TrEMBL record:
GO terms for biological process: methylation; pantothenate biosynthetic process. HAMAP family: PanB. Its cofactor is Mg(2+). Pfam families: Pantoate_transf (PF02548). Pathway: Cofactor biosynthesis; (R)-pantothenate biosynthesis; (R)-pantoate from 3-methyl-2-oxobutanoate: step 1/2. Homodecamer; pentamer of dimers. It is an enzyme of class 2 (transferase). Belongs to the PanB family. The gene is panB. This is 3-methyl-2-oxobutanoate hydroxymethyltransferase. InterPro entries: Pantoate_hydroxy_MeTrfase, Pyrv/PenolPyrv_kinase-like_dom, Pyrv_kinase-like_dom_sf. Transmembrane segments: none annotated. The lineage of its organism: Bacteria, Bacillati, Bacillota, Bacilli, Bacillales.
Length: 266
């Protein structure tokens, strides 16, 4: 399995880091076989596999359930698990308890948290000192969608951009092993990538990040209707799967399946 040291060296050697979300056994197995560098059990699972309209309904138990399946499918791949909405905001103690539960029960290699408030910088430090590596997440932080007012590009103004650069530096100082940059202008992502020694992983953050992450269902066009602008689909499973199900249904109706070939005899 690759480690944080490998990711650090990839940044230094300008070799891009590949990351993809995964929420279950088969997706994890296929991604590992395809040679992905890291998997993210994202709380986006609330939207793409549970059908919620945001990530705020996702629970610690949801994350553990899915992450365990991902680890069974990809035992040899670095797995990052999102801490879900409000599981790391009530108190330091409660945050550490949730982090321990997720980390111990899923065999994750790191946990991811959104934001860089003073409390979250402290949490990053405490988790790191306790032996739980932290991946940070800045820019569009979907757990705050109701505060931000939508899934929109962030830090377009100089003031908010400068704040993001400072936040990223503080996260690095407090031990974060990588920073996900979501939906920010490419120049800002370039600056952050140059100013940090830890890798940046972009999603809607342009070409200059040290790595890239996308949602599994987006690159496959699988169960999602509208794709964000930053996605490039690599196949269209919606059409493939619908076509296959239609063929199955018409075969059954037309009595073309099952045939003798699929039947048992005495
Ligand atoms: N399927 C899926 N893919 C994702 O990348 C994703 C999720 N779900 N759920 C959690 C968050 C939410 N994300 C999103 C969702 C939508 C946009 C979006 O539609 N953005 C607009 C740009 C808006 C603007 O103009 O600022 C776009 O057209 O891409 C962006 C990020 C990223 N994450
Ligand atoms: C989009 C990525 C970065 C994420 O946090 C998720 O999938 O939940
Ligand atoms: Mg997430």
């Amino acid at each position: 399995m690759l480690t944080r040291i490998d990711f650090q060296q990839m940044k230094e050697k300008k070799k891009k880091i590949t990351m993809l979300t995964s929420y279950d056994y088969p997706s994890a197995k296929l991604a590992e076989e395809a040679g992905i560098d890291m998997l993210l059990v994202g709380d986006s699972l609330g939207m793409v596999v549970l059908g919620y309209d945001s990530t705020v309904k996702v629970t610690v138990d949801d994350m553990i359930h899915h992450a365990k399946a991902v680890k069974r499918g990809a035992e040899n791949t670095f797995m990052v698990v999102d801490m879900p909405f409000m599981s790391y905001h009530i108190s330091l103690e409660e945050s550490l308890t949730h982090a321990r539960n997720i980390f111990q029960s899923t065999d994750a290699q790191a946990l991811k948290i959104e934001g860089a408030t003073t409390e979250l910088l402290n949490l990053t430090r405490r988790l790191t000192d306790s032996g739980i590596p932290v991946v940070a997440h800045l820019g569009l932080t979907p757990q705050s969608v109701n505060v931000l007012g939508g899934f929109k590009v962030q830090a377009r103004e100089k003031q908010t951009a400068d704040k993001l650069i400072e936040d990223a530096k503080q996260l690095e100082v407090n031990g974060a092993i990588a920073v996900v940059l979501e939906c920010v202008p490419l120049d800002l992502a370039k600056t952050v990538t140059e100013e940090l020694t830890i890798p940046t992983i972009g999603i809607g953050a342009g070409v200059h990040c040290d790595g890239q992450v996308l949602v599994y269902h987006d690159i496959l066009k699988y169960g999602v209707d509208r794709l964000p602008k930053f996605v490039k689909p690599y196949t269209d499973l919606n059409d493939t799967i619908k076509g296959a199900i239609e063929s199955y249904c018409s075969d059954v109706v037309d009595q073309l399946f099952p045939t003798e070939k699929q039947s048992f005899k005495n």
